[in-house]
Amino acid sequence: MSEEAVDTHAPALSKAQRPQAASILHSSTLRLPQWTYFHLRLFTLSTESPAHDAVTARKNLNTAMMRYLGIIGSSISIDILKLDNLDLWVRVPRESGGAFHEAVSAWIGQGDMKYLVKAKDDWLVKLSDSNGQDMF
Amino acid sequence: MFLSQSQTIRSSPCYFTHLELPTEIDPKNVSKRRKPFSSISSNAACHTVDMILPHELWEVVKSSITPESLQTEYHKVTMTLLEVISGDFFNYYIKTGNIFLLSEGRPHIDNRFSLKDGILRLELDKPTYERCGLTGRAIPSLGRKHIKSRYVIELNLRLAQMVRGKKGFDRIVWAFTRVLNEPVKWLFYDFHRGQKSRGEGTTCPIEHQNSVLCECILSIQNIPNAVVPIAKSSGAMKDQDYQEQLLEWLGLLSMDSPRVQTTDKVDKYICRYEVPCMSTQDAEDKAAPQQLVHVQVQGLMMSRSIISLFLQLRDSQKDYWFSLSAKSFEGNAYSILCTQGRETLVWELD
To answer: Residues in domain Ribonucleases P/MRP subunit Pop8-like (chain A) (predicted)?
Structure first.
C-alpha cells in the first residue's frame, strides 16, 4: 500500500526533488536477530592432524555443551554451516550464544584438542576474524 | 537462555531499507547522501567485497571486472607520523594531491591513524592523548559509560597555516617527534595515481619509502544448484523475519557454504538450515535452481571503486539480480541486493 502512495506522489514532487532521488518503499530496523554465528578452528598439540568431519565436530560440540550445562546443554540446537578442514562455522540461537561460547572455550578433547573462537557475530555477513588487520 | 540475562549482550541493530532506484544514474554525479550510495560512501575503505550474481550475468560482466579495471592498486608502507607531515611526501600528496592512508590497529582498542581528504585523524587512548598536547574530543568507547577513555584528534593539514614555522604546526611536529614517534604500518591509496606526471625520470615520493605495491585479489567460486529465495512481491519484503533470513542466505553464499545448494543432503542432526520460503507461488519459482557465481575481492577497496562496481553491475543487464556485500576496516558491513525489477534492498550493520 505504501509503495503505491509513493508512486502516486512521484509526479507531483517539486523541482527540488532531484530526478535521481531514490524512493524508499519500506525501511525497518532489525534489533533482535535470531542467531549468533561463530567461526571456530580446531587446535591440537599432536603432530598429526585429527580427523574432523561434520559428525565428529557435532559430537565435539555436543560433548562441550553437555560438560558445561549437563543434559540441558545437549538440547541447544547447533547448526554446522560449513566445515573446511579444521575451520568450522556454526550458528546457535542468540539467547544461547553466550553459553555456547563459554562451553566451547572450556572444552578440551582427546589428544589435547580444543576449539579456538576466531570470530563471533550476530550477523553472518559481518563475521570476520581479523577485520582486515592481516592486510598490513 | 540458560544463563542470566546479563549474559545476553544487546546486539548491534541492522538497518534495512527497501527502495527503488531511478532508471538512469549518472556515474559521474552520484548523490552520496542517498541510499544505497550513502551506505557505501560512509565506509571510506573496505577490506572484503563479495558479489553474488547469476552465471549468465557474470559471463557478461567478467571481462570488465578485473583488478586492472577496478583501479585498486595500493601500497603497503611503514612510516612514522613525522614522515607523513614532512618533506616531499607532505607537499606532493597532502598539500596538492589527494590520498588515503590507514594505519594498522583495531578500532576502539589500539591507537590508529587515518588520513582522508587532507584530514589526519588520530584515535588515541587517554594516556597517549594526554602526552600529545594536541586538542581533541572524547569519543564513546566500548567499556563503561560516562568514562572518557578514548580521544580523537582531527587535524586539517590542507589549511594555509599548516606549514613549518607556524605555532600550531610545530606543536604537531613536537607530538610526532616526542610521543607518536614509532614507525607505523600503513595502507596507502593515491586518488590521483597516473593522472599527475612529475616528468620523466622522477619517481613518486611513496616509492622512496620502501613501499610494496599490492593489488586486490579476485577469487571466483561457482555455486551450482543454488536455490534463490528472492520474493517477487514487495509485500514479502516487509516481513522482518524474511529480511533477516535473506541476509543470512547472502551470508551463506558469501562464505561458500554447501547448505544453500539443492544437492546438499545433510542430516538434521548436523544442520537444520533451510532456504527461506515466502509463499506457495515463490516456492514454485524457486524450484528451478540457478547457477550462481561468487566473486570475492580482497584488498583495499575505496568506496569510489565500490560505487562504480555497483553501477557497472546494475547497468549491464537489467534482467538479472545481483548482490554486493562489503566489510569495512571499522568493523561495519553492508549488503545491497538488486532484484530483477531493479528494486534495491539495503542492509546496514554497524
So the answer is: 34-107
The whole-number pLDDT of residue A9 equals 44
pLDDT tens for each residue of B311-332: 888 888 778 899 999 999 988 9
Reported confidence tier of residue B200, pLDDT bands at 50, 70, 90: low
Judged on CB neighbours under 10 Å (0-12, 13-18, 19+), B284 is exposed
All three cell numbers of B200: 620523466
Q: Name the average pLDDT for chain B.
A: 85
Q: Report the candidate in B126, B173, B178, B171 with the shortest Cα–Cα distance to residue B150.
A: B126
* Interatomic CA distance for residues B135 and A22, integer angstroms: 40
Residue among B248, B247, B274 nearest B262 (CA): B274
> Smallest Cβ distance to B22: which of A20, A55, A127?
A20
The answer to whether A81 contacts B16, with C-beta atoms less than 8 Å apart, is: no
Predicted structure pTM score: 0.87
Helix (H) or strand (E) holding B39: helix B37-41
Q: What is the pLDDT of residue B28?
A: 80
Q: Which three cell numbers stand for residue B213?
A: 605495491
The whole-angstrom separation of Cα A58 and Cα A40 is 12
**C-beta atoms of B22 and A31 within 8 A:** no
- Average pLDDT of the segment spanning B52-71: 86
CA dihedral B161, B163, B169, B174 (to 10 degrees): -170
CB B230 within 8 A of CB B339: yes
Domain boundaries, chain B: 5-71+217-349, 73-215
State the pLDDT at residue B7: 46
- Tens of pLDDT, residue by residue over B218-251, are 999 999 888 888 887 777 788 888 899 999 999 9
Nearest Cα residue in chain A from B239? A28
B47 near B214, Cβ under 8 Å? no
The contacts of residue B185 (CB under 8 Å, 6+ apart) are A136, B76, B77, B78, B103, B104
Q: Quote the minimal CA–CA distance from A70 to chain B in Å.
A: 11
How many A×B Cβ pairs under 8 Å? 180
Give me the domains of chain A, ranges plus CATH numbers: 35-126 (3.30.70.3250)
Instruction: Provide DSSP, B222-267.
Output: EEEEE-----SSTTGGG-HHHHHHHHHHHHHHHTT-GGGBTT----
* Residue B124, pLDDT above cutoff 90: yes
| Cell matching residue B30 | 552520484
Residue B129: band (very low, low, confident or very high) from pLDDT cuts 50, 70, 90: very high
